[in-house]
Predict the 3D structure of the following.
Amino acid sequence: MPFGYGDFKKPEFKKISEVEWIIDKNFKPGMKVPVKVVASRKLVDQMDLQVYDQATNVATLPGIQKFSYVMPDGHSGYGFPIGGVAATDINEGGIISPGGIGFDVNCLHPESKILSKYGYFKKIKDFENKSKEFLVTFNLKSKKKETSEPILLLKRKEKEILKIKTKGGKEIKVGKDHPILTTSGMIEAKDLKENDYIAIFPFEGIEYEEPRNDIIINEADVKRICNSEKVVKELKDRGLLPLRMNSWQLPILAKLVGFVTGDGCISSYKRYKNIEYWITVVTGKKEDLEDVNRDIITLGFKPWKIISCKIRSKIRYRNEQIREIVGITTRLDIKSKSFAILLNALGVPKGEKSEIEFRVPKWLYKAPKWIKRLYLAGLFGAELTKPIQDKKEPYRFKEPRLSLNKNEHLIKNGYDFLNDIISFLNDFHIEINKIYIYPSVINRQKTKTVKLILSISSKDKNLINLWSRIGFEYCKEREIFSSHALGYISLKNEILKERDQIKKLMTERLIPKIEISDNKTLFLLEKRMFSKSRITQSFLTFEEYRRSFCESSEMIWDEIKTINEESYNDFVFDFTVDHEDHNFVANNVILSNCGMRLVLTNLTHDQVKPRIKTIVDKLFQKIPAGVGGSGFVKLTKDEFRKVLMEGGHWAVNNDYGWKEDLKKTELNGRADWADVSKVSSRAIERGYSQIGTLGSGNHYCEIQWVKPENIKDERLAKKWGIFPNQIVIMFHTGSRGEGHQIATDYLTLFLQVMERKYGIKILDRELACAPFNSPEGQDYWKAMGCAVNFSFANRQTILQRVREVFSEVFKKDAESLGMQMVFDIAHNRATLEKHKIDGQMKEVLVHRKGATAAYYSGREEIPKAYKEDGSPVIIGGSMETGSYLLVGSEKSEQTFCSTAHGSGRTMSRSKAKRLWRGDVLLKDMEKKGIYVKSVSFAGVAEEAGGAYKDIDEVIEATRLAGISKPVVKLIPIGNLKG
């Protein structure tokens, strides 16, 4: 038995029977009931120790009855073990928990750097127990940068992790299931391969440093500028006085101070009754000024109108030449006195900047580096030149320049200001060339001015430091150009680095020259292999790179160079973020975040076997599989809301099935307690395009053979329409992203109210819950009903596709082919049921996490066709070993009418991929008579038969426990795998 999982110690098992084991409720403080494991000794030993840690945590939940159960296919999950069952008494404070119904957590290495909207990064492990954060996220339709708030940090233990490196030098360590944005949408890391392109946001930012509580501006500072009680009151009311280094408004103000210093001005004037008015004016492009306006609104000021108008002006040069400028200027006039005085108090100069002295604000010298970065980025967004390719050296960039106009008598002050900037740049390891001075123009006051230009070194390393650590604020064009330039320089330098490594090895005669002949870039560099480290004409120019690898935003595409699995035995982390596209940036990489149906045919093995490849290939074309993926059913969001209310009925009413199908579907194909008003817009967004999709992981559509010797109960098999050598179809899928988002939404809500409002304390935040009869509990119950209805509709539409394919191949309609449904049953949900407990009938909420309902004869939950015998139970095995159809039996009352739901994994997907190669496995299975079509070889390797428990032993354990009995074993001959 595998021990040593964290601090959890080996439980002692009390043997009740050959397949029943008890962990005493005194094993862990707070346990209200014991744990019962239904499994053979061999299966008990195969379960990870975390299974028992989770099961004993479940035993502490309010209102739990009898036992916390683990079925024979048990393995570790999120909060609850998969294969876990728990019933809570809804009339005795019993709870409802998303972790007990079905929830997945993806994972990132704890050292992963997560980028915030303010340009700082934190390691994901350091986000624990923090309050307000805003992360960089991307709108997946527009590919534009937005922001989102992390509403939940999740963590779990992991044993393997993937290390992905790109050709541009980026690196990230993720769990196998973590979706990563690619040119084909979000794809799980395990399904990526070398040469795939993933989305990168090249800006790296500055490591976060907690600001001190020092006061920057107080009431006296404001009154020295303008002795106005009204201004003081306005600033106090907005929480801006006193302003401290750790005030939440300071990051916004820091970049505004920089931007207005560069491309704005503050002025005052007196009008009626000698009242003094203050105004702040900033100029720029409309989309950039809209960003400025949004930040001003965030600070508590009202929005201001952006104005575009024609301008006509004359510039007089020192040589007396005059140039007339005609054009359109766009500006934002902020007519708030308190706002202007606040900026002035923070160091923005008042008046014409060329005519007055000013320096970098003194308070910035004591600020954390990431705050300094915001000031500089605001200033650079106004005044620093954008990345420009050097025409003389097309693989390099011109030196960035920051200009400042000053009257001749203020030249020293101009130098002082630029030297302040230089001192800050030194903190970011950015080198300076020099400060140039040029005669400029004669201003309106007929005063001679000069232009001071701060020139920044154009060395590649220096530009990377400049654009990836500071960058630009309030200038979308420069942000985009610098992002693309970073991608270009990084790719170029990685190629040069690789070339230099090969050159070194060739010089040392450690590799023959011919070994690099397949690499086009290096082969073209062959003649200059021993020259200086410069790129050659074979490399892309910057413009060519932008056309090939860049979006019209800060996002770029970077090719995967290597993917390696690493052993790992520690916590991994993931975010749930408040954004409809559920993504964030980690280490520059953009990352995101069921049930069974059995159908009969009257076809035999001999009829189908010769056509199995045709059938599977056509199913592969007609049923979308894999992560993300849009279904063949195209719906509006309003129509999708009807699906969530009507379930399988919606599908049948829209010609995706037969009315008879509903009679053999659990709940008659609809959870009638569903309420779509309890489902978030995020869940709607994630789900409305996924009706008619399989998904990934262990989801599949399988064609199966009833071998004569595998019929275990001839009477029941015949009654249910099953005969020797028959072909049947089984498929496994669920509520996809919509169900996941519903669980995410309510898990977050429960964490907020659980202890504060209801006094519920739990051992693991993954068990977040609320009383079933509470408003929050009822809302989740109704939203979960929508997820159940999604799964019914999803499987019903897939069944229609299956019928269409068989009709096409055999040239008969589906009715003539006898394609009747046996049963559809949901996994991963909670059900209100009545059970006898301690001699009393109680209404309980049964959580089945990776477990299947197994109702014995006469139960009211069973469809009429099966009430006499008990409900059909569909148990999926691996694609190599076969599946089972069972029937619920009397003793299932002991487990709240629950049994296993599959084989249960014995190893992680990563380990399976190390042991088996998907392409080899496909060939081996085809030799055994099983034809498999999959989205990826990696996905095939993960689902190898050897990665699962022995399905026969799992079924035998349920039989010996008396909770379900086998009717027939089904052997795969064809499989479509997600």
User: Anything to note?
Assistant: Residues 1-6, 513-533, 626-630 have pLDDT under 50 and may be disordered.
